[in-house]
Each structure stands twice: as C-alpha cells, then as structure tokens.
Inverse folding.
C-alpha cells in the first residue's frame, strides 16, 4: 500500500471512531483494506500529520500530564517519520514550538502545519515540513502566518489553494466564538510572496470547532463540527452537529455556501476528545 493510501486509512479511522457501531453496515468492510501501522514511540493526541513524498510524518501533539492531583496538557515537539514498509517510526527532528490541536494538509511540497495550541496559547504560525530524501533530513520552512491565531481547526486543499475552517475564542474555554474561513494560494504561501490569507464568509450552521473539511472537484465541503471548544481534560462535553455545507469558490460571496445532506449522526473531529495520559 502506498503512503498516501495509508494516510487515508488513518484519517478515515478518525471519522469512523465518531460514528456509533450501529451505524456501520456489515458490508462496509468491503469498501476499504485496512493495514495496521507500527505504533508511535509515544502516545499523543491532536498531532499534525500528513505526507512528504513517500513518507508519513506525525509532528507535535499533546499528552495529559497528571501531577499533584491535577491534569494539564504537556505539548510535544517531536517529529516522527515512517518510511514505506518500515517496521518502526524514526525521530527526525523537533518543532520550534511544541504544539497540538492545529490543522494540517499535504501539498506537493510537503506537510503544512497550521496554527494550533501551545503553552503560549493559540498560534497563527504556519510551517512546512518536508523530508529531503537525498540528504535524509527534515527541512522546516516558515510560511505566511494566519490573519489571527487559531486552534481546533481543519484544513484541506484544492489544486492550488489551501482552505482553513474553524472558530476563534478570546479564551479556549470561552463559549462565545467567531467562525472563520480563510484561504491562500499554495504558490504564494510556499514562495512567501507579499500576500495574505483571503477571508471568506464563514460556514453557516452551528459547527464551529473541529469540523471535517475536504475538497473535491474544486469545491470545499465542511461536515459536522462542535458547537463549543473542547480539550480532553475539560469537564465540558463536545456538542457535535450533523450539518454539512459546500463552498463554491467561483460563486458570489452571498451564494458561496449551500447546504448538502446532513450526516446520519452528529460528529466532530474526534481526536480532540480522546484523553491520552503519558509523559513526553
């Protein structure tokens, strides 16, 4: 199985974890072939992940640190790489700022890591992680930052444009949020040209945090999401929705979004709600 197919399997598993077993038909197993990947050296949630060339990259992430009868996030800066047919992951570098709960998208140049959460709060940083097979080394490039800091978002790309959907709050536990939907051309982002992220009308509906975002045939689809921000150690429960919408880039702004069929169950990007206790 090629590395891109392995990544698809990983992403699909995240989606299926959000769907009750009763909703999965017996014949659905015939749609996909599943391969088990080697376990990561450490257990993390909310990591950046994607492909650079033929290798799979997992960067950052968070664990829950239990100390003095209290839980707190411990952010990882580790970057791990899995070569095709490899039996174990290789540690190939570290992020400048240990972080998690951002969004990531694979482009031809490598893995783009967008925003996220760290000990310093939400981030607007955007970086490119690229594996150089000739030197067997990880290359890191700072790209054009987001208009504002953002965490618990999702990203996708069309032929030459990256889109980011999510919501901002004044505080990660704040119930008042502002939805955002931004885009930038890949050539401008990687070339560090004098440009900025374009701001579009946000997705309608109640799903603000942790939506599932995918591009197809030049359009962008946003599925589900949670009405509130949620981090694993918080007592609050995510409030996922079933809504789904399509963004048409070529349409006038007032008509850019259109509803599509609701999901059969309410879902949000589930890796944000699975507690992981470990040491990083």
């Amino acid at each position: 199985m090629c590395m891109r197919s392995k990544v698809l399997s990983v992403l699909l598993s995240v989606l299926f974890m959000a769907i009750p077993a009763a909703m999965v038909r017996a014949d659905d197993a015939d749609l996909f072939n599943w391969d088990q990947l080697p376990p990561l050296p450490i257990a993390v949630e909310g990591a950046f992940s994607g492909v650079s060339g033929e290798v799979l990259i997992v960067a950052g992430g968070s664990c829950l640190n239990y100390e003095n009868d209290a839980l707190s996030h411990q952010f990882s800066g580790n970057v791990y790489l899995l070569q095709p047919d490899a039996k174990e992951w290789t540690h190939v570098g570290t992020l400048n700022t240990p972080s998690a709960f951002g969004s990531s998208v694979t482009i031809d140049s490598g893995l783009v890591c967008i925003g996220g959460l760290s000990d310093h709060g939400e981030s607007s940083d955007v970086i490119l992680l690229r594996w150089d097979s000739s030197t067997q080394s990880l290359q890191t490039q700072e790209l054009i930052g987001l208009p504002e800091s953002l965490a618990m978002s999702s990203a996708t790309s069309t032929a030459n444009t990256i889109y980011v959907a999510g919501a901002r709050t004044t505080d990660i536990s704040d119930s008042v949020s502002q939805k955002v939907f931004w885009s930038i051309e890949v050539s401008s982002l990687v070339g560090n040209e004098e440009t900025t992220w374009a701001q579009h009308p946000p997705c309608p509906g109640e799903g603000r945090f942790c939506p599932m975002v995918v591009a197809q045939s030049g359009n962008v689809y946003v599925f589900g999401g949670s009405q509130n921000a949620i981090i694993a150690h918080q007592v609050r429960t995510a409030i996922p929705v079933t809504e789904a919408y399509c963004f048409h880039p070529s349409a006038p702004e007032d008509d850019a979004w259109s509803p599509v069929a609701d999901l059969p169950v309410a879902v949000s990007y589930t890796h944000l709600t699975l507690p992981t206790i470990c040491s990083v």
Remarks:
- Confidence is low (pLDDT under 50) at residues 1-24, 270-280.
- The helical segments are 3-17, 186-191.
- The CA atoms of residues 241 and 266 lie 4 Å apart.
